[in-house]
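dude i think i finally got it to work??
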Amino acid sequence: MITSKRNPLVKKLRSLLKRTGREEHSSLLLEGSNLLEEALKTNFLPLEVIATPDWCDENMELLKKISSRSLLTLVTQNVLEASLSTVTPDGVAAIFPMPGLPKLEKAPKHILALDRIQDPGNLGNLFRSALAGEYDVIWLASGADPLNQKVLRSSAGSVLHLPFERIGDSFSSSIEMLVSKLNIAIDNNYQVVGTISPNKVTDKEVKPYWDLDWNVPTVLLLGNEGSGVHSSIEACCTDFVTLPHSPLVDSLNVASAAVPLLLERQRVKMVKGIQ
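look at this
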């Protein structure tokens, strides 16, 4: 059992908290029992499980699912606390191979495109809502790292179920590349849907979100928390929708505004009794 905070494993786990470290090791770190269980639901198996003896004693059934195919390393609680971002770890972390993340198996019908979403909590919640709305893939133009521990936790593991594509490696390139992808989508008969506040003066035709047919191939576009969607990206939109709300509120949090939009197709299916 590892008892020293100076053990090389501690340094490796700390490195996996950063994007550069994940790329160097081609590995992903998941902290805690909940994320480990979410990964196993998709048959995403860890390379190594790092756990305290107490956690192992309390989770024998979970260990049976992975013990024959994954390395188990025992550590003290102090070592785990020194290795992870969680202030009080629940006793386990696991290293997974990056190539095991979900991949798009077929041409997507429903796409969520995010323009520079900065807040990890917002991004995690957007993943969760997109999974609930049965979206096929998320396009990420710059913004927060989807494999950041805060994103993983706030997504409740949804990042492990929903394919995503990071677009561009800089502010300018991400905008340019997303514009290109949106134009290709339009050429392939997708509707590209942008949102506008009901309090905003605009010359664009804007519909309530429930007046749109969300069952056709769709790209839903949401923008940065502070500046919204970049003007060159917004220019690609074929349709604009709004969520009616009190004029006392200038705008809604992006993760909150996304929920009714992402779930509208499910609502219509429920009302019409479609399976």
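The longest strand covers residues 92-97.
im so relieved honestly
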